[in-house]
Fold this protein.
Amino acid sequence: MKMMKMRKSVVAAMMLLGLVVAPVAASVALADDPAPAAEAGNAEAPAKKEGGEGQDTKKKTNSGFMGVVFGSGVLGVILWAALFLDGAMAIYFIVDCWVLIKPQKLMPQGLINNVQGAVAEGDVMKAIKACETEPSPMSNVLAAAFQHVEDGYDVIQDAVNAAADLEIERITQRLTWISVCSNLAPSLGLLGTVQGMIMCFATLSSGSPDVGELAGNISQALWTTAGGLVVSIPALTFFYSIRNNANRLILRMTALTMELIKPLRNVEVEPGA
């Protein structure tokens, strides 16, 4: 079972990584491919000298994605490193939450069966022991209910609601990191865009700007914006999907808990038990 879960986790990670990397790879391929119109124009143009050909090759190489990354200065390299790190962290937290927020993780069937048997026998201490044996969010909620059996059913309901709110908060704290990564990526992309525009105007202020350098600065601005969106959109989609699933499971768990403790309304626990 552990091997199957690990395989599922690896497959999910590979799918998420492909989802993030595929658009970037496609964009890189499109950016590196020369346009047909440019090829036709080059065919009609006269042959250049060997030195000119070397210069053109260098410019073409620098115009690709890696040329944009390493040609944007120290700040640009730091921004791209932060953007890739942000994407990697988003993938990690998505896989982590995807694996952990499952029905079998939140409310194990073995726990439900043991608690049902203990409640049917009227043995509260046995039910509490079952909760301690199989720790999970549902066992925490059930334990809070069983600890207030003698205080009345209204107190039990309040205890269940409070424990359920605490479990929701714990799960939400994990999900919050996905939201942080999705919100941070566009900010990093915008910062790279601002840097590219600053470099553009610095090139224009020279009086006789180099067209290739100016185009590289504009490319830097657009690439960072695209990179931020490529990380942000999938992360934001998975965040809302996993969050809604978690809320649905918590509500289901709370309703199931109330069903399990209904027979305990008139149960009395001996002080010496």
About this structure: The CA atoms of residues 98 and 242 lie 7 Å apart.
